[in-house]
Design brief:
By secondary structure, the protein is mainly alpha-helical. Strand 6, helix 23 and strand 7 form a beta-alpha-beta unit. The longest helix has about 30 residues. It contains 41 helices and ten strands. Among the domains are: about 250 residues, TIM Barrel; about 170 residues, no CATH class. It starts with 13 loop residues before the first helix and ends with a helix. The chain has an eight-stranded parallel β-barrel with strand order 1-2-5-6-7-8-9-10, surrounded by seven helices. It catalyses: oxaloacetate + phosphate = phosphoenolpyruvate + hydrogencarbonate. One of its GO terms (biological process) is carbon fixation. Its EC number is 4.1.1.31.
């Protein structure tokens, strides 16, 4: 159960869940009996029984006896050999992962069977109409809504992609098991398949042995198969990826659900080219503190994303061509089909290899040749090697070749190879005749003039012959088997002709991208391939309109509508890639430039002087950076990134996010560097850069920066150049990002939540004052400590006016798989995003009823922040305690992300990234970042007589209620006895152990205060399903923690023991599975 899944936790009944847990546990035991033997399984069951008994006693309030059983369990674990400990860790880890699969499956099963699903489009649309909203207002709001879910590469997904894939396979088998029509034999076969999957999981290494590259992370998020790229990308490597695995199927299903609900409640369907949700990505673009993300990586990932999109569309078009076999069509479509046939002159060219991707050997061979290749073969180069004699000699006949010639690495390689004509046209435009070998030769084709054989070196000639032979083997006859025989002209299938032409242009676009990714020359003309979404939509919409006009609407509303909606949602890039860099890197780049130009030191100027310089240069029409400038490698990388951004443009890229932004000059600095790069690239190309300029988005992260966010936006919008730029290039739209992770680490969760709320209010007000529309971009993590929590609750508790039909939000690490890993789960999450934003727009949450409430929040926040910082930043023992009591130092061995765990080399908490900070405390079940300081703040205000005020705030103010509920949720996951055990075994110093005891007392105080405010008798009383799910994991989770403590103890006295390290990492995996989140 992730922190997000209580979105639908109330919909769970537990009988089916228990049955699936029992089934998977028994099957794992069966596998273990075979793999490790009966004796070990008996020992494992004994440990499980001790853990279960201790949990039952704690639930009954018999603490002393429970503690005795836990000590006995810890004693038995301490006596285990290393091999036994490793096997036990693996077994419990797999138990917890299988339980997670059962949870997810049971939620999906229950929601599928519910007649009225809460937070659904149908329910929310009906609710809004009954609240007084008109049907037209509802319709316009849904059609104009813009929600973007941004998938990031934050390193919180702990499972290997291989294991994720196997877990999905098990989930699909459980879903298949729910079918009522299965015979007994079917169920027996299904059980055998489950046993095979679990056996495969057991025999698979759980650990990543190498860190992923940024491109690996992008592949995991987006791609299916990768072409042979000269980079760290393997050849045709199959990847588990969220797009093809789930979103590709979920998006059209989700949009049908939205459209049907709109039709029911307003009488109008969702327009075909309208989608309330799109997707973005940081994978391969987020370079903040990650030196592995370079300009080349960003370029390759962006091109790869395009390749992936086109590859998916080719498959879709193939399926659609098969379905749309009818001949009746509109006059407009008929004319289009005949125009396509008129343009195509070589029906046999469809059997050429050029409309297929080259093999890896072919591409590599091209890349190895230093001189440029000729555009045609020399005379007789098409003959077998044994026909080296002249024209009048040789004992072998000439080989008849299909097509008009072999033209390597030219855009001509795909001309005349249209699948539309090859499939459906035989006569009338360049007569064709069949020849003996079954291929076709065009009697009107013009053979290229022979070129002297001496124009080739012998090595080139051999290479060309080999290339040609490889390209032809089996392809002509095999291609003919795949496609239907060409009918006579009077019976042409116009939809197939048009869609064949679409496929042809898509294949050329895919081939072009392969050449670009190989850094090989490409001479395709722009009309040969699809570059924009509108270009691809045009023929698809033409087919749709034709079907509708001919009375075939039922066909039009099938696969064709789904494909149109996929194109509208995913475009030509699947997900536009955001770029992110820290503000200081831009200042360093400008400092190097100004020094090189003898203009002074940019970094030493005050804010006003910076703004004056930046504004002046932005108004200038000349480039600032000389092409011959010599700068340090770090600065060059920044400039190279802007150059790549200029080359790709806004058609491929989304926003440029500035982390650690604090001044207006941080934004203008990026605008200037972007403008300069676009001028340079445009000059080299001799034409404007593709697409428009990227949106520049300041990210306010620390408490100090959040407090100044509104002032920065006001300053920016008061600058004439910037306000005109926003209106002209971004349609009067300003985007601002707020960061939850660093603000929480900086001041504690409660203070961060309040400062984020006020910052959003201030930014929204600043934009409203300047008549600019604002989109707030929420950088939320998966855990409560990093701003995570139920999506619906989070959006519904935003300040009024901050969600005006637009929202961007990150989804990170394990949350991506948890929310979008299965199509049904993905549909549910997309619907929750849509309805939550719609409600927040049309029925915004209430403001604080009294000004007194805001004053109380300020007071709680101040006390909370002071308590948090006095412990984390001011207590001299805390840093050492943190390192001893948690596995923080060992987390780096997990290899779960490409970026370092620290922004800088400092060992303090300040430069530690928020993910390992939260991750480490989650492992020990102390979850300190989510609650530290909260108890002190609430207690301080209650002691001043404001308890009843807090209770009223909880009942009537959505923001305050959601803040308390999230803290209560995470307190339900905390475990004081387990955290105490870490301290007793691992913390060496008496003063540090006392610090741990003091923090545990603070945790108890926080629990009491939260329960007083919420009015609940015990934690998670308002979410019994969540509490029940947490309790069901404890018999497996508690032994994992005890085992981790024992392994940490041994490893810290034997640091080079790799088996101990492996055992520790497996316990980390298992505990993350049990807690259902990492950082």
């Amino acid at each position: 159960m992730t922190d997000i899944t209580d979105d639908i936790a109330e919909e769970i009944s537990f009988q089916g869940f228990d049955d699936y847990c029992k089934l998977l546990k028994n099957l794992l035991n069966e596998v273990l009996q075979r793999e490790v033997g009966t004796e070990f399984v008996d020992k494992l069951e004994r440990n499980l029984t001790l853990a279960q008994s201790a949990c039952n006693l704690r639930f009954a309030g018999i603490e002393d006896t429970a503690e005795l059983l836990e000590k006995q369990l810890a004693s038995e674990i301490s006596k285990m050999t290393l091999e036994e400990a490793l096997t036990l860790a693996r077994a419990f880890s797999h138990y917890l992962n299988l339980m997670g699969i059962a949870e997810t499956h049971h939620r999906v099963r229950k929601t599928r069977n519910l007649a009225h699903l809460s937070k659904s489009c149908d329910e929310v649309f009906n609710q809004l109409l009954h609240s007084g909203k008109s049907g037209d207002e509802l319709y316009e709001s849904v059609c104009n809504q813009e929600v973007e879910i941004v998938l990031t590469a934050h390193p919180t997904q702990i499972n290997r992609r291989t294991l994720q894939y196997k877990h999905v396979r098990i989930a699909h088998l459980l879903e298949y098991n729910d079918r009522p029509d299965l015979t007994q034999e079917d169920r027996e076969i299904l059980i055998e398949d489950l046993v095979r999957e679990i056996t495969s999981i057991w025999q698979t290494d759980e650990l990543r042995r190498h860190k992923p590259t940024p491109v690996d992370e992008a592949r995991a998020g987006k791609s299916i198969y990768l072409i042979n790229l000269n980079s760290p990308l393997p050849y045709f490597l199959p990847c588990l990826h969220i797009v093809e695995q789930s979103l590709w199927k979920a998006v059209p299903h989700f949009l049908r659900r939205v459209s049907n609900a709109l039709k029911k409640h307003t009488g109008k369907s969702l327009p075909l080219t309208c989608t309330p949700i799109k997707f973005g990505s940081w994978m391969g673009g987020d370079r903040d503190g990650n030196p592995n993300v370079t300009a080349k990586v960003t370029r390759d990932v962006s091109l790869l994303s395009r390749w992936m999109a086109i590859d998916l569309y080719i498959r879709e078009v193939d399926s659609l061509r098969f379905e749309l076999s009818m001949t009746r069509c509109s006059d407009k479509l008929s004319r289009e089909a005949h125009d396509i046939l008129e343009q195509e002159t070589s029906p046999e060219d469809r059997h050429e290899s050029w409309n297929q991707p080259m093999s890896g050997n072919q591409t590599r061979l091209h890349g190895q040749q230093a001189p440029p290749l000729p555009t045609q073969l020399p005379a007789r180069a098409d003959l077998p090697a044994c026909t080296e004699c002249g024209d009048d000699g040789g004992s072998h006949p000439k080989l008849e070749l299909p097509g008009t010639g072999y033209m390597p690495l030219s855009c001509q390689d795909a001309q005349g190879s249209s699948n539309s004509e090859s499939s459906f046209h035989e006569s009338g435009h360049g007569s064709s005749k069949s020849i003996a070998n079954g291929s076709f030769a065009n009697s009107n084709s013009h053979q290229p003039a022979p070129s002297p054989r001496g124009s080739f070196t012998s090595s080139q000639l051999l290479a060309q012959r080999k290339l040609f032979a490889e390209s032809k083997i089996g392809r002509s006859s095999f291609q003919k088997l795949l496609e239907p025989s060409p009918p006579e002209r009077p019976g042409i299938a116009p939809y197939r002709i048009v869609l064949g032409h679409v496929k042809d242009k898509l294949m050329k676009a895919r081939r072009r991208l392969e050449l670009l990714l190989e850094d090989l020359p490409c001479e395709y003309e722009s009309w040969d391939y699809y570059e924009t979404t509108d270009q691809l939509l045009e023929p698809l919409l033409l087919c749709y309109e034709s079907l509708q006009s001919c009375g075939a609407g039922v066909l039009a509303d099938g696969w064709l509508v789904d494909l149109i909606r996929k194109v509208t949602t995913f475009g030509m890039v699947l997900m536009k890639l955001d770029l992110r860099q820290e503000s200081g890197r831009h200042s360093e780049a400008l400092d190097a430039i100004t020094k090189y130009l003898d203009m002074g030191s940019y970094s030493e100027w005050d804010e006003e002087k910076k703004l004056e310089f930046l504004t002046r240069e932005l108004k200038s029409k000349r480039p600032l950076v000389p092409p011959t400038i010599q700068v340090a490698p770090d600065v060059k990388e920044v400039l190279d990134t802007f150059r790549v951004a200029a080359e790709l443009g806004s058609d491929s890229l989304g926003a440029y996010v500035i982390s650690m932004a604090s001044n207006a000059s941080d934004v203008l600095a990026v605008e200037l560097l972007q403008k300069d790069a676009r001028l340079a690239v445009s000059g080299e190309l001799g034409r404007p850069c593709p697409g428009g300029t990227l949106r520049v988005v300041p990210l306010f992260e620390t408490v100090k920066d959040l407090r100044g966010a509104g002032s920065v936006i006001r300053k920016l919008l008061s600058i004439d150049w910037y306000s005109e730029h926003i209106v002209k290039n971004h349609n009067g739209h300003q985007e601002v990002m707020v960061g939850y992770s660093d603000s929480g680490k900086d001041a504690g969760r409660f203070t961060a939540a309040w400062e984020l709320y006020k910052a959003q209010e201030d930014v929204a007000a600043a934009c409203k004052d300047h008549k600019v529309k604002v989109t707030l971009f929420h950088g939320r993590g998966g855990s409560i400590g990093r701003g995570g929590g139920p999506t619906y609750l989070a959006i519904q508790s935003q300040p009024p006016g901050s969600v005006m039909g637009t929202l961007r939000s990150t989804e990170q690490g394990e949350m991506v798989q948890a929310k979008f890993g299965l199509p049904h789960s993905a549909v549910r999450q997309l619907e929750i995003y849509t309805t939550a934003v719609l409600l927040a727009t049309l029925k915004p949450p209430e403001l604080p009823r009294e000004e007194k409430w805001r004053n109380l929040m300020d007071e709680i926040s101040e006390i909370s922040c002071q308590s948090y910082r006095s412990t984390v930043y001011e207590n001299p023992e805390f840093l050492a305690y943190f390192h001893e009591a948690t596995p923080q130092a060992e987390l780096g061995f997990l290899n779960i992300g490409s970026r370092p765990t620290r922004r800088k080399s400092s060992t303090g908490i300040g430069h530690l990234r928020a993910i390992p900070w939260v991750f480490a405390w989650t492992q020990t079940r102390f979850v300190l970042p989510a609650w530290l300081g909260v108890g002190a703040g609430l207690k301080g205000v209650c002691e001043k007589g404001h308890t009843e005020d807090l209770k009223a705030m909880y009942k009537e103010w959505p923001f305050f209620q959601s803040t308390i509920d999230l803290i209560e949720m995470i307190l339900g996951k905390a475990d004081i006895p387990i955290a105490k055990h870490y301290d007793e075994v691992l913390v060496s110093d008496k003063n540090r152990r006392e610090l741990g005891a003091e923090l545990r007392r603070e945790l108890l105080t926080t629990e009491k205060c939260v329960l007083v405010v919420s009015g609940h008798g015990k934690l998670s009383e308002n979410n019994r399903s969540l509490r029940r799910l947490i309790e069901s994991r404890l018999p497996y989770l508690n032994p994992m923690n005890l085992l981790q403590v024992e392994i940490l103890k041994r490893l810290r006295s034997d640091e080079d023991n790799h088996k101990l390290r492996d055992a520790l990492l497996i316990t980390i995996n298992g505990i993350a599975a049990g807690m259902r989140n990492t950082g």
